[in-house]
Design goal:
By secondary structure, this protein is α/β, with parallel strands linked by helices. The protein is built from ten helices and six strands; from the N terminus they run αβαββαβααβαβαααα. Pfam families: DSPc.
Length: 266
């Protein structure tokens, strides 16, 4: 697959030239649940309500449980580990101030496509500008919402950006999509699976116990298969049982890490 070919062209370089800092995967001592920005205000327009209904209908179709996004309540997020936060989209520059001052966020990883931002009327450029003013590194790894195949293909690069930001150790990393219920938690779970020594079910349960959500586990398994199963005669992922690649051997995890490291800057 394309990911594997790109990976192996860089692995030798990654092994010989890059050094990586120890990653802190420590879970926070306290679980604060989902926190709400106190500066949030309720929207009252019918168009905003219709947008939420439209989005939630699509979300319910793609998830096993009927989780909903309440845009009118403002940005919401959950501390997953000491240096990793998963949440919904920042809606205004003041949200960036909050993340910097209250949570010491030094990196933001945005999984949204342009059309997601436009759908909710977010002025992304003003948010990026505020990030620059506050010294926050804003990164984008767009994946199509409600599309497991798009998420699967983007997970290696997104996990690469997340792992790099955490390894820099300059502050917390805020990972978000639109609602913080699908793409963003999937990237966080993938990172915990590949880099924190957990199997997929443990990583999934750890995150979802803190932030109730429904990320696509099959997309994570598929991305793991793409990187770890490099035999030219490998069986198709679609023919494998549901438990396949929910856990991996140490050599497979090391192979995945080398591949992910090689994607830095791509």
């Amino acid at each position: 697959m394309m990911i594997n070919s790109a990976c192996y062209s860089f692995v030798s370089i990654a092994k010989s030239k890059l050094r990586f800092k120890k990653i802190n995967c420590t879970l926070p001592e306290t679980e604060s649940g989902i926190e709400h920005n106190p500066t949030s205000t309720r929207a009252s327009s019918n168009s905003r309500t219709n947008k939420m209904e439209e989005y939630n209908i699509a979300m319910k179709k793609m998830m096993r449980n009927p989780y909903e996004y309440h845009h009118d309540l403002g940005m919401n997020y959950t501390l997953i580990t000491d240096n990793l936060i998963v949440g919904s989209q920042p809606q205004k520059p003041e949200d960036i101030d909050h993340l910097k001052q209250v949570e010491n966020v030094a990196y933001i990883l945005n999984l949204q496509q342009d059309k997601d931002v436009e759908f909710w009327g977010i002025d992304l450029q003003s948010i990026i500008k505020r990030c620059q003013e506050l010294g926050i590194r804003h990164m984008r790894r767009p994946a199509r919402d409600f599309d497991p195949d798009s998420l699967r293909s983007e997970l290696p690069k997104a996990a690469s950006s997340l792992e790099w930001a955490i390894s820099e150790g300059k502050g917390k990393v805020y990972v978000h999509c639109t609602a913080g219920l699908g793409r963003a938690p999937a990237v966080a779970i993938t990172y915990m699976f590949w880099f924190c020594g957990m199997n997929l079910n443990t990583a999934y349960d750890t995150l979802t116990s803190k932030r109730p959500c429904g990320p696509n586990k099959r997309a994570i398994r598929g991305a793991t298969y793409d990187l770890a199963k490099n035999d030219p005669w490998k069986e198709p992922f679609e023919s494998l049982p549901e438990y396949a690649f929910a856990d991996i051997a140490d050599w497979e995890r090391n192979l995945i890490r080398d591949c992910v490291h090689s994607l830095r800057g791509s």
